[in-house]
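Q: Please design a sequence for this.
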């Protein structure tokens, strides 16, 4: 992160605007420690850990707040971990003071147990943030999840391998603009490569949902937070994905598709824009061959002739209710994290979208991307296209929904291992695709 010479002054101004004439409860000589769980990189030296260290050295030290990261997790798992910590008696660390999670996770903890950021950010301050991102973290009028960054889903490709495929077959990146072209290209690559998979998907259900919505499907969730399996458009969208899956044209990722792309198991992956943080600049094939990744990033495919939709994904920042001093400390930390230049630096380094109005315009002229810079420039070109041409859609927020999703994904990962042999033994594509539909139905 770049040095910031006016951090102390900015922090003082933020605290003044937050507390008005009220006396601060924070005391430099008697600092309060906030525990923090986050999902921004489970490896050591993650960008979020670097930010925490910077805060502790500067504004935190001046104001009497120290933040300690006590756990990291994946976004898909942190909700369950938080519920276990809230219940107590688990092997997990105690319930954190500040944490990142989805709005559904915050609601599962109980809105009454989570700080309402509306009480800690003035209306004028909130107007500086993208309203849709604030709405995504709001339930029953309470701003429970404060946005620090947002991601969406994009298509990332091994450019070196795709160029060879293109030279041999005439396939073009423009073919991947639509779902129709994506599935055709996946099948063509399978034939060209002698049976290799084109793409690994991290979140196929979201792709299926968006495809169905673009085709006019409505109200395909049930009251208990799963899918209306009588919805014909949603079912056909699923079966389109499933037919490609059982034939080996695409596959379920091993949780994160960058692994498959970096080892050459597939030449592309659909996942979070933030996955760019974990891509290497080289592909290391299993036979020992190494070549440049030449990472290409394309917008999520869309339905031909329909209005394009994009997921609005990503966790936000929550604070658990304890006492007023800790709430003020949490407010100081979150104000500092979301300060404009700092937020822009963070998202540009991690592949997220900025959350402040006007910041997307600023990122077009941003020059401080990490290496390989061209990959990040490709990413933000794709994100800017989606910003202009796609409509963002919030993810489902049903309690228990993501537990069912993860169970379905685990079942599909196991099932896909046997599909080649089953097809070779005479089972049909449609039979196997319908079997995956039965899996989905059984999760409800």
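A: Design:
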């Amino acid at each position: 992160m770049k040095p910031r010479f006016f951090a102390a002054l900015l922090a003082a101004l933020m605290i003044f605007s937050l507390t008005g004439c009220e006396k601060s409860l924070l005391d430099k000589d008697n600092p309060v420690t906030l525990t923090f769980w986050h999902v921004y990189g489970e490896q050591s030296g993650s960008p979020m850990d670097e930010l925490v260290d910077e805060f502790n050295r500067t504004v935190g030290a001046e104001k009497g707040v120290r933040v300690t990261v006590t756990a990291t997790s994946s976004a898909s798992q942190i909700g369950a971990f938080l519920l276990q910590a809230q219940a107590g008696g688990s092997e997990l660390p105690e319930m954190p003071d500040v944490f990142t999670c989805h709005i559904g996770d915050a609601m599962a903890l109980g809105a009454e147990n989570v700080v309402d950021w509306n009480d800690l950010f003035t209306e004028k301050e909130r107007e500086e943030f993208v309203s849709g991102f604030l709405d995504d973290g709001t339930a029953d009028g309470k701003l429970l999840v404060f946005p620090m960054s947002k991601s969406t889903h994009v298509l990332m490709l091994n450019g070196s391998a795709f160029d060879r495929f293109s030279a041999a077959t005439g396939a073009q990146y423009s073919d991947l603009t639509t779902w129709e072209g994506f599935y055709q290209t996946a099948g063509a690559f399978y034939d060209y490569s002698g049976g290799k998979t084109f793409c690994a998907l991290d979140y196929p259900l979201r792709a299926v949902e968006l495809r169905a919505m673009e085709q006019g499907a409505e109200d395909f969730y049930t009251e208990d937070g799963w899918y209306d399996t009588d919805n014909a458009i949603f079912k056909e969208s699923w079966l389109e994905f499933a037919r490609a899956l059982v034939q080996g044209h695409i596959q379920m990722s091993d949780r994160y598709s960058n692994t498959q792309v970096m080892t050459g198991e597939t030449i592309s992956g659909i996942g979070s824009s933030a996955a760019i943080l974990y891509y290497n600049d080289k592909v290391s094939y299993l036979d020992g061959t190494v070549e440049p990744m030449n990472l290409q990033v394309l917008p999520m495919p869309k339905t031909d002739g329909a209005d394009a939709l994009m997921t609005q994904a990503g966790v936000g920042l929550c604070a658990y209710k304890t006492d007023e001093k800790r709430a003020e400390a949490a407010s100081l930390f979150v104000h500092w994290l979301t300060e404009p230049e700092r937020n822009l630096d963070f998202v540009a380094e991690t592949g997220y979208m900025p959350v402040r109005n006007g910041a997307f315009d600023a990122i077009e002229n941003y020059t401080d991307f990490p290496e390989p810079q061209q990959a990040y420039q490709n990413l933000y070109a794709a994100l800017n296209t989606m910003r202009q041409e796609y409509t963002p859609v919030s993810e489902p927020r049903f309690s228990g929904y993501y537990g069912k999703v993860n169970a379905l994904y685990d079942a599909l990962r196991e099932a896909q291992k046997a599909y080649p042999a089953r097809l070779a033994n005479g089972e049909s594509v449609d039979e196997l695709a319908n079997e995956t539909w039965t899996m989905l139905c059984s999760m409800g």
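Q: Thanks. Anything notable?
A: Residues 1-21 have pLDDT under 50 and may be disordered. The CA atoms of residues 15 and 432 lie 59 Å apart.
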